[in-house]
What does this fold into?
Amino acid sequence: MYLSRHATSDGPRWALDGRLLSSAFDLRQLLALPAADIAAGLRSSAGTAPASGTLLAPIEATHEVWAAGVTYLRSREAREAESTVRDVYSKVYDAERPELFYKSVGWRVSGHGMPIRVRDDSRWNVPEPELVLVANARGEIVGYCAGNDVSSRDIEGENPLYLPQAKVYDGSCALGPGLVMGAAGSLRELPIQLEVRRAGRSLFQGETQASNMKRSLEDLVGYLRRELAFPHGAFLMTGTGIVPPHDFSLERGDVVRITIGGLVLENSVDAAPRAVRS
It folds into this structure.
């Protein structure tokens, strides 16, 4: 079952397998259901009108996106190489407790085809392709999508306590293109691919598999929910196993393409500096 979200003349609307759902459909209400009732809940809202209009990020305004870090060996190695405090990342990788941090609120997330950004005060920026879990209010994994955890490596490398600035800013989070709803059983076998294109030419390509992750998906969600309630469900980015070389940095105008299973999330890096806001 595939959920997508579209801009329509009546406002944002969700669609199931390419057909608009009832205008009353709310993802928050769906994710309040037990996993066993999700399919029936979707069928009860099913319509017949074909979905059209601009594709939006598959998340609602008040949903939270969280992220896990240093879940792949490749990520640990990259963080050690960039950091002035190298042993902290080895300790995180080997520890029982995972690194978890807040990434974005739903209204700030970019969808497929929407721009992402690099920070104006950073010189070393990278995309981070990640499997993103959709968990319901009970902490059951009920779906997934592709995600991009855009990051400023020089800022985090200067001091690990700068991680929120390196990871959380306008245009740093993209999800999409839609949500594949279903049990978590086969998610660890999903291939994850990244391509960055510049001026029409492929600049970097990489691939990994979710099975290379050290931690289980259920363990990551379990730690997230230990002292936090998510009555409307939550999105959890699970870390990256693809890291471009040290001489690579995203530039304005680059196109980032992330493929996870059959999902393709593509975003261009905003060609303009951030607009000044009052």
